[in-house]
Amino acid sequence: MSDAEVDADRATVALRAAKNGAAVAADSFRTDLTVEAKNGKTDVVTQVDRDAQQTVIETVRDAYPEDPIVGEEEGALKEVPESGPAWIVDPIDGTNNYVDGTRAFGTAVAAVVDGEPVGAAFDCPALSDTYRVGPKGPFRNDEPLSVSDCNDPEVATVCPTFWWDFDQRDRYAAATREVVKRFGDMRRFGCAQLELAMVATGALEGAMTDMAINSWDSVAGVQLIRAAGGVVTDLEGDRWRHDSTGLVASNGAIHDELLAAARAIEG
Predict the structure, then answer these.
(1) What is the per-residue pLDDT for 190?
(2) Residue 231 contacts by C-beta under 8 Å, 6 or more apart in sequence?
(3) Read out DSSP for 99-164?
(4) Same domain flag for 22 and 115
(5) Is the pTM of this model over 0.85?
(6) Are residues 140 and 157 in the same domain?
(7) Are 113 and 162 part of one and the same domain?
(8) In the prediction, which pLDDT does 247 show?
(9) Shortest CA distance to 53 belongs to which of 101, 109, 100?
(10) Residue 31: which CATH number?
């Protein structure tokens, strides 16, 4: 990824905002939390999610007071503007993990201009890992990121990422079937941004879904993968955008097989 594709100032603010939001989450991790359901039994939220989002918003607005902010919780927009700058926030990606005391969660912040990311950060406080794109290339902590060079699907590890709800479990079953029959192994961590970040580090060769995905669950991780040399497309094989249907993310070498697996979910 060239420096021309990164706005160093916005990338720096994204990193600061993600760290500040993650610190709020870390302060209450493994404490007695009040958990509320939003749109289903497995779609949950806590007051910590709201507090972390507010902290992120305040950090961003200190630097860019006029920019619109898109976020998962109330108090933020739900759609990414087609033009101009904006920020995309997931205060706690992996809330179910967070509630259960599992370390796989974090705060994601992406800066976009005209819908395209120009800087992103994902901070996982319980794992002591911070992923970022910009001001210079992609990093986990101080380690430069690069996708895996594995080109054999039969030794590749793939994640059927995001969440198929109870009325879509046939598609969830189809996704896992396609992964286990085509690839060497399967992982799932319950935190979409972490799963995408793991593709960027080479810990996974790919992650895929056939669904349309919320921008706060995806944009930061997608930029990490692309900056690390990977490929992210929609189900048609076209370049993925925040409003695409389906997300197929890979190291590039196994992308055709992963795309075929994602397309096969609906038969």
Answers:
(1) 96
(2) 225, 249, 250, 251, 252, 255
(3) HHT-S--EEEEEEEETTEEEEEEEEEGGGTEEEEE-SSSEEETTEEP-------GGG-EEEE-S--
(4) yes
(5) yes
(6) no
(7) no
(8) 98
(9) 109
(10) 3.30.540.10
Rounded to whole angstroms, the Cα distance separating 185 from 182 reads: 9
Are 65 and 89 in the same domain?
A: yes
pLDDT tens-digit map of 8-30: 999 999 999 999 999 999 999 99
Are both 133 and 205 inside the same structural domain? no
Same-domain check for residues 138 and 30: yes
Range of the domain at 105: 3-144
- Asked if residue 258 and residue 195 are part of one domain, the reply reads yes
The token pair at 257 is: 């097989």
**What are the pLDDT digits (tens) for 174-195?**
999 999 999 999 999 999 999 9
What whole-number distance in Å separates Cα of residue 242 and Cα of residue 247? 10
Which tokens sit at 20?
């500040």
In sequence order, which residues have a C-beta less than 8 Å from that of residue 177 and are 6 or more positions away? none
How much is the pLDDT for 137?
Answer: 84
The percentage of the chain sitting over the pLDDT mark of 70, rounded to a whole number, equals 99
Whether the pLDDT of residue 152 is over 50: the answer is: yes
